[in-house]
Design brief:
The chain has 328 residues and is α/β, with parallel strands linked by helices. The chain folds into two domains: 73 residues, no CATH class; 228 residues, Alpha/Beta hydrolase fold, catalytic domain (Rossmann fold). 43% of the residues lie in helices and 16% in strands. The chain has twelve helices and eight strands. An eight-stranded mixed β-sheet has the order 1-2-4-3-5-6-7-8, sandwiched between helices. The longest helix has 30 residues. The relative contact order is 0.11.
Length: 328
C-alpha cells in the first residue's frame, strides 16, 4: 500500500500533509527554534522596551499556535484519509483477451452499485479457485502478472475492482471493500458451484484487509496475505511519526485492522513479505504471522513492494504451500 503518492497533484492542504510526511519533525523543530530565538532576542533588549514585551508575547504564543496547528493537521488528515488509503487510477483494458486466455467478465450488484471483475480460467485442469483482492492503486488491468502465476499453477482466478476502481461504480471504503469481496465469494460458491474449501483467499497489500475480513466469516481452503500491513493506523503512525497510532485509530475510518482479525483465521495461512519492501515494512508481515494461529507459514521473498511478487522464490514458495492442500 503506497499511502502517499501524488501529493503535488492535490490541493494545498494535501501539500502540507505531504511536507509533514517527508519531513515530520519540522513540526516540532520550527516552533522550537522560533521560541528560542524570540526568548534570546528578548534578553538582549532592554527591560521595559515595547519590542521586548512583544517578543516575549510572541514566544509564549508559539506553543499555543503549535497545539492549534497540530489539531488542524489532524483535521486535514481526517478529511483527506480516503485520498491516502484509496488511489484508483488507470483504465481497465482487456489483457486476458489480448493474451488469448479463457475468461468472462463478472458484473455484480453491490448495494445498488456495480462491482466488476474477471473470472480467468486455469491454463490446464482446475485445482480450485483463487479470489484475488489487489492493492490500493491501479485496477485489475495492472495485476495481470499476479493472475498469471496462479493461472499457471492450475487455479481459476476471480480478480475484481473495488467500488470506484476500474469499471466498478460507487465510492471506495472499507465497508464497500468488505461488501465487494463477499459478493465475489457468493459468486464463486453460488453461481459457479465451488465448495468453500476449494477456494483460496489471496490479498495483496491493501487487499489483505478485505481478505482478512472475509476469512473470519467463511470456511475457505487457504488464505494468502502478501505484503500486507497490520492496520492503517499503524501505517499512518509510521509515515506520520508526529501522530501516535492510538490517536490515528480514533480518527481513521478505514482501519483495515488485519492484526486484530488474523488470529480468527482457521484455514492454512501463508504470509508473504519482503525484507526489502520500501512501502510496507516486513515487520508488518512478521507481526501478522506471529499473531496468527497454526497452521501457518511465512515466505520471505526478495525485491521491493511492487517487484518481489515476480520472483521464482515466490512461485516456488506458493507451490510448496499449495500442493499439499490442493493436490495435482
Amino acid at each position: 500500500m503506497c499511502v502517499i503518492s501524488n501529493y503535488t497533484k492535490e490541493t494545498e492542504h494535501m501539500f502540507v500533509l505531504g511536507l509533514l510526511y517527508r519531513y515530520p519533525y519540522l513540526y516540532f523543530i520550527v516552533p522550537t527554534v522560533l521560541f528560542v530565538l524570540l526568548i534570546l532576542a528578548s534578553r538582549i533588549m532592554k527591560p521595559g522596551e515595547k519590542s521586548r514585551k512583544t517578543a516575549i508575547a510572541f514566544a509564549y504564543a508559539i506553543p499555543v499556535l503549535a497545539v492549534v496547528g497540530y489539531a488542524g493537521i489532524l483535521a486535514l488528515l481526517y478529511s483527506y484519509q480516503g485520498n491516502f488509503v484509496f488511489q484508483p487510477s488507470g483504465t481497465v483494458d482487456d489483457p486476458p483477451k489480448v493474451l488469448g486466455w479463457t475468461y468472462e467478465d463478472v458484473l455484480l450488484d453491490v448495494g445498488g452499485d456495480s462491482t466488476h471483475g474477471w473470472y480467468v480460467h486455469a491454463a490446464a485442469d482446475t485445482r480450485g479457485a483463487v479470489l484475488f483482492s489487489h492493492g490500493n492503486g491501479g485496477t485489475i488491468s495492472s495485476r495481470i502478472k499476479d493472475v498469471e502465476v496462479f493461472r499457471q499453477l492450475g487455479f481459476d482466478v476471480l480478480a475484481y475492482d473495488y467500488g470506484g476502481y476500474g469499471k466498478s461504480t460507487g465510492l471506495p471504503s472499507e465497508t464497500r471493500c468488505r461488501d465487494d469481496i463477499l459478493a465475489m465469494w457468493n459468486h464463486l460458491t453460488n453461481d459457479r458451484g465451488f465448495a468453500p474449501e476449494s477456494i483460496i483467499l489471496w490479498g495483496r497489500s491493501m487487499g489483505g484487509g478485505p481478505t482478512c475480513e472475509l476469512a473470519t466469516q467463511v470456511d475457505e481452503g487457504a488464505v494468502i496475505l502478501e505484503s500486507t500491513f497490520t492496520s492503517v493506523p499503524d501505517m499512518g503512525a509510521e509515515q506520520f511519526p508526529i501522530f501516535p497510532s492510538f490517536l490515528l485509530a480514533l480518527l481513521i475510518e478505514h482501519k483495515f485492522d488485519n492484526v486484530g482479525k488474523v488470529s480468527q483465521i482457521g484455514a492454512p495461512l501463508l504470509v508473504i513479505h519482503s525484507s526489502e519492501d520500501e512501502i510496507i515494512p516486513a515487520t508488518h508481515g512478521q507481526k501478522l504471522f506471529d499473531t496468527a494461529i497454526n497452521p501457518k507459514d511465512f515466505l520471505s521473498i526478495p525485491g521491493g513492494h511492487n517487484s518481489g511478487y515476480l520472483t521464482t522464490i515466490r512461485t516456488d514458495g506458493l507451490k510448496a504451500f499449495l500442493n499439499p492442500l490442493f493436490p495435482l
